[in-house]
UniProtKB/TrEMBL annotation:
E.C. number: 2.1.1.205
Species: Periophthalmus magnuspinnatus
Role according to the record: Methylates the 2'-O-ribose of nucleotides at positions 32 and 34 of the tRNA anticodon loop of substrate tRNAs.
Main enzyme class: transferase
Protein's name according to its UniProt entry: Putative tRNA (cytidine(32)/guanosine(34)-2'-O)-methyltransferase
Keyword Disulfide bond tagged: no
Residues reported to bind S-adenosyl-L-methionine: G53, W55, D80, D96, D121
Location within or outside the cell: Cytoplasm; Nucleus
InterPro entries, per the entry: RNA_methyltr_E_TRM7, RNA_methyltr_RlmE, RNA_MeTrfase_FtsJ_dom, rRNA-MeTfrase_E, SAM-dependent_MTases_sf
PANTHER family reported for this sequence: RIBOSOMAL RNA METHYLTRANSFERASE, TRNA (CYTIDINE(32)_GUANOSINE(34)-2'-O)-METHYLTRANSFERASE-RELATED
UniProt-listed Gene3D superfamilies: Vaccinia Virus protein VP39
Length: 315
């Protein structure tokens, strides 16, 4: 497969490189902004699970350099488990959003002033076991919600990735406790074939007397089954909104490399290569022919073909 084949298969991947975004996800936030005006009046924003940083790029480009506001008022804090290349006007924290220490560090950066907007595009490494993936995704969203309850101002907005799996009704009901407006949004750049969507939660209004606490057992499966299913009159239904101009590209379609007759296609390299990708060690081991030796030292000593038979190794 040539390096241009992904450009053909994934139009948003290609546009992201051409427009200088670090990831195609940038379009998801931009298309949600078209519907919800997410950045109006926002000076302080938190980007949870931010690497490689395309949402932080969107925040930086949209919030900074506005005529009516000085950049000194703008504060953007980005958090991820992974290291991220620097971005103008973005403070980075390398940390786990499920940890109280990360919440405390974010709060410290805001120096007592609450954030206007919290966004979270967090995704675990998917296992392919749908129930497990949905459960971990839900836990990540709830960790983001917990951090949000510590840092978001009353009336503020929270946007987070959600998997529309079987526990989604419970998640909606929990979000409705904190926000008067909860909408499920599906940007055109998010494939229809994916269960990924986003919750846009507006007007943060925590319940009377609510004290933020990172150990809240929000999606606790010790609740009885009926509570988790929230059926009948208890079922929470939130509005569903497709976001993005109808003329926007369809992320499930394959487009020709030459989109415009007057402009010849030219390959554009990625805007920012990952600085410490999780697959780095595997690449190093493979390049130096160390994989089979590490995994099966005795087999590799005796059998010159052992690399081909080492369990778990696929080239
Ligand atoms: C889909 S990527 C985010 C892409 C990003 N919004 C962008 O536009 O470039 C998901 C990120 O979630 C991060 N992540 C997953 N679990 C996390 C956790 N517990 N704490 C912090 N980050 C986490 C991953 O490291 C990964 O970088």
């Amino acid at each position: 497969m040539g390096r241009s084949s992904k450009d053909k298969r994934d139009i948003y991947y290609r546009l992201a490189k051409e427009e200088g975004w670090r990831a195609r996800s940038a379009f998801k936030l931009l298309q949600m902004d078209q519907e919800f005006n997410l950045f109006t009046g926002v000076n302080r924003a938190v980007d949870l699970c931010a690497a490689p940083g395309s949402w932080s790029q969107v925040l930086s480009r949209k919030l900074r350099g506005r005529e009516e506001k000085g950049d000194a008022e703008v504060k953007i804090v980005a958090v991820d488990l992974q290291a991220m290349a620097p971005l103008p006007g973005v403070t980075q924290i390398q940390g786990d959003i499920t940890k109280i220490s990360t919440a405390e560090e974010i709060i410290r950066h805001f120096e007592g002033q609450p954030a206007d907007l919290v966004v979270c595009d967090g995704a675990p490494d998917v296992t392919g076991l749908h129930d497990v993936d949905e459960y971990i995704q839900a836990q990540l969203l709830l960790a983001a919600l917990n951090i949000t309850t510590h840092v978001l101002k009353r009336g503020g907005t929270f946007v987070a990735k959600i998997f529309r799996g079987k526990d989604v009704t419970l998640l909606y009901s929990q979000l409705k406790i904190f926000f008067s407006g909860v909408t499920c949004a599906k940007p055109r750049s998010s494939r229809n074939s994916s269960i990924e969507a986003f919750v846009v939660c507006q007007n943060y209004q925590p319940p009377e007397g609510y004290i933020p606490n990172m150990s809240n057992p929000l999606l606790d499966h010790s609740y009885d089954v009926d509570f988790n299913q929230l059926e009948g009159p208890n079922r929470v239904i939130v509005p569903f909104l497709a976001c993005g101009d109808l003329s926007a590209y369809d992320s499930d379609r394959t487009y020709p490399l030459q989109l415009d007759d007057s402009k010849e296609y030219q390959y554009t390299p990625p805007t920012q290569l990952p600085i410490q990708p999780p697959y780095q060690q595997a690449c190093h081991l493979r390049r130096n022919n160390l994989l089979s030796k590490e995994d099966a030292p005795s087999a590799s000593n005796n059998n010159p073909d052992s690399e081909k038979t080492t369990p778990g190794w696929t080239s």
